[in-house]
């Protein structure tokens, strides 16, 4: 395999950190009534304190424009060889409340309750043979290609927010 096909973790990490900084800046501007703490990312990325209580957040960022594809990549196994959970399953193992899929180019955030998102994906009954491999140095990550609409647009499941529009009434 050529090195051009090996995923660069460091490059992704930098993009993710930049996206997290933008997300926090826009959330703080749009929702000044929420206190948002950025954490170390090992257990939780953020905790948001709101009038309804406190919620832990895992923020997944994709650097491409949403118009490029109707799909998203949901990591199932962070490390395939050891079956280390990834994505929403990893978030569940860390007792995280909300999983946010963030598109910084569009300033769109899709948010769902971790446990309900897992139920939704598992109800799709996607066989392991459909897992998409991402080759990293020394290990393989595997995940699902999911249609955004089928993943997030389930009654009572999703919150959609455009953080780039000031006239948007916010979370819905």
Task: Report on the architecture of this protein.
By secondary structure, the chain is of the alpha+beta class. It has one domain: Trna Endonuclease, Chain: A, domain 1, CATH 3.40.1350. It contains 4 helices and 10 strands. It has a 6-stranded mixed beta sheet with strand order 1-2-3-6-7-10. It has a 4-stranded antiparallel beta sheet with strand order 5-4-9-8. It is globular. The model is unreliable at 167-172 (pLDDT under 50).
Provide the domain count. Answer: 1
| Biggest sheet overview | 6 strands, mixed
| Spatial separation of the terminal alpha carbons | 44 Å
Q: Approximately what portion of the residues adopt beta-strand conformation?
A: 25-35%
Tally of alpha and pi helices: 4
Low-confidence stretches: 167-172
Main CATH class = Alpha Beta
H-E string? HEEEEEHEEHEEHE
Topology:
Elements: H1 9-30, E1 35-38, E2 46-50, E3 53-61, E4 71-79, E5 84-85, H2 87-93, E6 98-103, E7 108-113, H3 114-123, E8 132-135, E9 140-147, H4 148-152, E10 158-162
Quick gist of this model?
With 172 residues, this protein is an alpha+beta fold.
What attributes characterize this protein structure?
10 strands; Trna Endonuclease, Chain: A, domain 1; 34% strand; alpha+beta; globular; 6-stranded mixed sheet; 172 residues; 4-stranded antiparallel sheet; disordered C terminus
